[in-house]
Design brief:
Helix content is 45%, strand content 17%. Helix 1 packs across helix 11, helix 5 packs antiparallel against helix 12 and helix 6 packs antiparallel against helix 12. An eight-stranded mixed sheet has the order 3-4-2-5-1-6-7-8, with helices on both faces. It contains twelve helices and eight strands. With 276 residues, it is α/β, with parallel strands linked by helices. The chain has one domain: P-loop containing nucleotide triphosphate hydrolases (Rossmann fold), CATH 3.40.50.300. This is Flagellar biosynthesis protein FlhG. One of its GO terms (biological process) is negative regulation of cell division. It comes from Methylomagnum ishizawai. GO terms for molecular function: ATP binding; ATP hydrolysis activity.
Length: 276
């Protein structure tokens, strides 16, 4: 890939499932695209993909076809709503959730041959701390962790942060609180997580935003349309756009040159050396 402009590569993750992580990734991605950014969303939940389901898309090809050599990344990419481009994973194919590290690297290496200019690559990982999730997260420049006001969400978020920091040296995490009553509630939830991490870990947590519980968000999911497009004046849509603005304002890491080359190089190296 010959692109030289800096690229933001952000993992969107969660300690547990059911916290609205994919909805967050989609709506922030669409909001960034609405700001004129060229955004690609990689569905990295290999085997239980749901970005295409959430958006009502019917992709003919997916990452399994890249792995088999039948298609390139450019050929499987689909145009989503609001200018968001999506790299679909395969849903319900167990083989895709059991890739070895070399196979994971083969998929990521395909990004090196991508012929499209992009500004932001968002990586929607699976929930939890499985080996494949860890490899994707540590290859990204930024980590966005989605939490909700549930004991299991906070406990699993702490376990995620502890693992990534202790074993892989990830120091900074952007936190988004989802399904909260309001911003005050979201900030209080963030503070609750900070109290634990400040006591036991040497990490920096950054409050990126709070998305309120919103009936319009539920309706948008039923319509298979991002809430920022379906109900642009809703509270959740406004919160997503504000979060996208803050995301866009974050400094872009230039580690290893930054961008996709950095992402590809790290992903291949971690996949070749991982033991889990």
């Amino acid at each position: 890939m010959s692109q030289t402009n800096p690229i933001r590569v952000m993992a969107v993750s969660s300690g547990k499932g059911g916290v609205g992580k994919t909805n967050v990734a989609v709506n922030i991605g669409v909001s960034l695209a609405g700001m004129g950014r060229r955004v690609v969303l990689l569905d990295a939940d290999l085997g239980l993909a749901n970005v295409d389901v959430l958006l009502g898309l019917h992709a003919k090809y997916n990452l399994s076809h890249v792995l088999s050599g039948e298609r390139t990344l450019d050929e499987i990419m689909v145009e989503g709503p609001g200018g968001l481009r999506i790299v679909p994973a395969s849903s319900g194919i167990q083989r895709m959730s059991e890739l070895n590290h070399a196979e994971q690297a083969a998929i990521i290496r395909a990004f090196a041959d991508l012929n499209q200019d992009i500004d932001v690559l968002m990586v929607d990982t699976a929930a939890g701390i499985a080996g494949g999730v860890v490899n994707f997260v540590r290859a990204c420049q930024d980590v966005l962790l989605v939490v909700v006001d549930e004991p299991t969400s906070l406990t699993d978020a702490y376990a995620f942060i502890k693992l990534m920091n202790r074993d892989y040296g990830v120091f900074r995490f952007h936190i988004l609180t989802n399904m909260v009553q309001d911003v005050v509630h979201g900030q209080a939830l963030f503070s609750k997580l900070c109290k634990v991490t400040d006591r036991y870990l040497d990490v920096a947590l950054h409050f990126l935003g709070a998305i309120p519980q919103d009936e319009y968000l539920r309706r948008a999911v039923q319509k298979q349309n991002p809430v920022v497009l379906a109900y642009p004046n809703s509270k959740s849509a406004q919160a997503f756009r504000a979060t996208a603005l803050r995301t866009d304002a974050l400094p872009i890491s230039q580690r290893g040159g930054g961008g996709l080359e950095f992402f590809v190089e790290r992903m291949i190296r971690y996949s070749n050396t991982a033991t889990v």
